[in-house]
Description:
29% strand, globular, 123 residues, alpha+beta, 3 helices, 29% helix
Amino acid sequence: MPRTLIHSARATIESLSLGPRVKAQGDAEEMIFDLYWVGDGRSGHLGLATESRLLMRWNAVPARLRALLAPEVCEKWLPLACAWAAAAPKRGNAWAATNHRWMVVHRDGALRLIEKDGASIAK
């Protein structure tokens, strides 16, 4: 299903990463997945070739939580992510020049979207 959604949105994900659970003890939220647009100033970020600008990362979640979240992720968040990814290369030079992050997090039993750009990404 994810591959079909990505193709039907005409999105090109240039780098896909799978990682461990990202939730430190005491953290209120944990990242489920994100998309990252690498701006002009950081085109060598993570050792990627200049043309690799759109990255997707999925983090592991406990099986019980994954079973609860999977329908919403597949039906709501992944289609929205694919639309964002497909639109990213067409947003113009000013937008493309800076870094952008589109992130779905789990907090207080619900999934939420966090979008960041430029300097706010490091925070």
